[in-house]
């Protein structure tokens, strides 16, 4: 048997490095780190503003605080960005409005200035956060399309069913970053199984996989009568009477909203490749 190609995980991992803004997108960092970074950036903006205020007279010095708000929205998300807006408004009040070094405000015009700074910060935060999410969604779709393109290219040269299954498992792991099981099935047993990630199938999960194949429908994790199953299963069948089952162990707290489209696309390619291999060897 030909050793399955290892292009998919390696090439897919390189796609993350192709995004020039990836270094700025740190929303997966711990929440405390994100909020602390937003506060630190606002403090740095304060140092710059104090330095500028001591040298020259700048009429709209408060706009310096919009910069960390936008950076926080792009890098850390909406929450830390709003935190930066609040801290920036308080810092502007403390350092640059009379009486200085106090949160008291003597001039009503400064109250409006502080409020306007907060509103501008919130608006900039929302706009930057939305733009960032849309850019992330577009980058994710491009990455998924590239992974599927790589799989469709590699599976054409697959020599047998085991290689087809191995490539499918690698593809699904690259798409979802969760434990994956892909099984070639007969009517009564598993003929070949390929796993990715740390997972051993329980008896109830084998029953769920068989049920998915029998009914021709997906079987979600944790659904009666397979309450203890950790995997979502999708059936794959071909006109030539070949069967496979795809299983993915999603984290319940990080489950993608619509995984079925990608899984069924991979399953369709598996079915086509199995049929092609059957006719080529039959």
TrEMBL record:
GO cellular component: plasma membrane
Entry GO MF terms: ATP binding; phosphorelay sensor kinase activity
Alphabetical UniProt keywords: ATP-binding, Kinase, Membrane, Nucleotide-binding, Phosphoprotein, Transferase, Transmembrane, Transmembrane helix, Two-component regulatory system
Domain Sensor protein KdpD transmembrane: 35-139
Origin: domain of life: Bacteria
Statement: the UniProt record of this protein carries the keyword Membrane: yes
Subcellular location: Membrane
Membrane topology: Multi-pass membrane protein
UniProt xrefs under InterPro entries: GAF-like_dom_sf (IPR029016), Histidine_kinase_KdpD (IPR052023), KdpD_sf (IPR038318), KdpD_TM (IPR025201)
Residue stretches spanning the membrane: 31-52, 64-91, 111-131
KW Metal-binding (keyword) present: no
Protein name: Sensor protein KdpD transmembrane domain-containing protein
UniProt source species: Bradyrhizobium erythrophlei
């Amino acid at each position: 048997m030909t050793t399955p190609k290892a292009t998919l995980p390696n090439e897919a991992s390189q796609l993350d490095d192709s995004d020039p803004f990836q270094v700025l997108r740190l929303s997966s960092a711990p929440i405390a780190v994100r909020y602390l970074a937003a506060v630190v950036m606002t403090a740095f903006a304060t140092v710059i503003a104090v330095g500028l205020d001591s040298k020259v007279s700048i009429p709209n010095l408060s706009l310096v605080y919009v910069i960390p708000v936008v950076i926080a929205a792009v890098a850390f998300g909406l929450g830390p960005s709003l935190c930066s807006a609040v801290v920036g408004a308080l810092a502007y009040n403390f350092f640059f409005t009379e009486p200085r070094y106090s949160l008291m405000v003597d001039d009503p015009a400064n109250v409006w200035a502080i409020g306007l700074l907060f509103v501008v910060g919130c608006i900039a935060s929302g706009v930057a956060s939305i733009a960032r999410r849309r850019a992330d969604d577009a980058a994710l779709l491009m990455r998924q399309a590239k992974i599927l393109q790589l799989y469709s290219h590699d599976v054409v040269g697959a020599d047998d069913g085991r290689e087809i299954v191995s490539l499918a498992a690698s593809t699904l792991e690259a798409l979802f970053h969760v434990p994956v099981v892909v099984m070639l099935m007969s009517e009564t047993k598993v003929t070949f199984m390929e796993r990715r990630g740390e997972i051993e199938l329980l008896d109830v999960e084998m029953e769920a996989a068989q049920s998915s194949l029998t009914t021709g429908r997906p079987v979600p994790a944790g659904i009666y009568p397979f309450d203890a199953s950790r995997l979502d299963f999708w059936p794959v069948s071909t006109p030539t009477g070949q069967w496979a089952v795809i299983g993915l162990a999603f984290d319940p707290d990080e489950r993608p909203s619509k995984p079925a489209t990608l899984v069924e696309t991979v399953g369709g390619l598996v079915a086509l490749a199995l049929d092609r291999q059957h006719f080529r060897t039959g």
